[in-house]
Amino acid sequence: MNKKRTDILSRITKAQKCLAVLIDPDKMKLTSVPRFIKKANQSIATHIFVGGSEVDEGLTESLVVEIKKYTELPVVLFPGDIIQITDKADGILFLSLISGRNPDYLIGKQVKAVSKLSTSNLEIIPTGYILIENGKETAVQRVSETKPIPQQALQTIKDTAKAGELLGMKLIYLEAGSGAIQAIAPHIISEVKQNINIPLIVGGGIRTKSELESAYIAGADLVVIGTAFEDDDTFFDDLKKQKLQTNI
Ligand code: 1GP
């Protein structure tokens, strides 16, 4: 276990901001991978995340193999389920959905994943995953049968993130959900960041360069964007290397 390196923790420790491009195996055709990844390579993206809430068996592995033909960027699994685990990637966010109260997503699926992970070389990154309400029901909410934390419940959001840190998690992920109407508000990012001593990932509903910059300025160490690239891959052109002011 833990032989490959994804660079996530080391880059963030050096105060470098990261951008992960999220690819959902259910939505990305293998034939679209070369063009998409070429554009990602020319952008400020630092990681490729692969995962989705509902993905058929086998799709993730073939997608990861195809992506790795075209990029040196670390490929990190962001799995919605155990069947998305493949040794072909470099690492995995080992998620616990700590905003919810469904034991399967807090610890059940993690226990079932161990036999697969113990024979893999993936870098395993324990991650406290916190779903925040965004204005519509998300796939994570539906599949996990959990409730997101309301944006107004700031103290609960902060305490949940801190509890994740105290449990030994290495990252906290504030998630508004794929295609969220409202991304995580900058004041929530900033309050959570000030209250924890581990790196912060933010994702869900970020569609523009200015929203990305706001998330970084508020304190996000790594931002995840999926839908905006899926809908229009010319968004990569706005994010070409050296175009952003933030130190990436
Ligand atoms: C979803 O946070 C990610 O898990 C990315 O969300 O697809 O809205 O960018 P978007």
Considering the chains and any ligands shown, give keywords for the structure:
248 residues, alpha/beta, TIM Barrel, 10 helices, 8 strands, globular, binds SN-glycerol-1-phosphate
Descriptive overview:
This protein is an alpha/beta fold. The chain has a single domain, classed as Alpha-Beta Barrel (TIM Barrel), CATH 3.20.20. Helices cover 36% and strands 17% of the residues. It is built from 10 helices and 8 strands. An 8-stranded parallel β-barrel has the order 1-2-3-4-5-6-7-8, surrounded by 5 helices. Helix 7 packs parallel to helix 8. The longest helix has 15 residues. The site of SN-glycerol-1-phosphate (1GP) has 14 residues, from strand 8 and helix 9.
At the fourth level of CATH, the homologous superfamily is: FMN-linked oxidoreductases
Shape: globular
> What count of structural domains?
1
Helix and strand sequence: HEHEHEEHEHHEHEHEHH
CATH class category label: Alpha Beta
Strand content: 15-25%
Helix content: 25-40%
Low-confidence stretches: none
- In terms of structural class, how would the helical and strand content be classed? alpha/beta
Strand element count:
8
Short description:
This protein has about 250 residues and is of the alpha/beta class. The chain is built from 10 helices and 8 strands. Helix 7 packs parallel to helix 8.
Topology of this protein?
Blueprint: H1 8-13, E1 18-23, H2 33-42, E2 47-50, H3 59-68, E3 75-77, E4 91-97, H4 103-117, E5 123-131, H5 139-144, H6 154-166, E6 171-175, H7 186-195, E7 200-203, H8 209-218, E8 222-225, H9 227-231, H10 235-238
Parallel strand pairs: 1-2, 1-8, 2-3, 3-4, 4-5, 5-6, 6-7, 7-8
The structure holds SN-glycerol-1-phosphate (1GP).
SN-glycerol-1-phosphate binds next to β8 and α9.
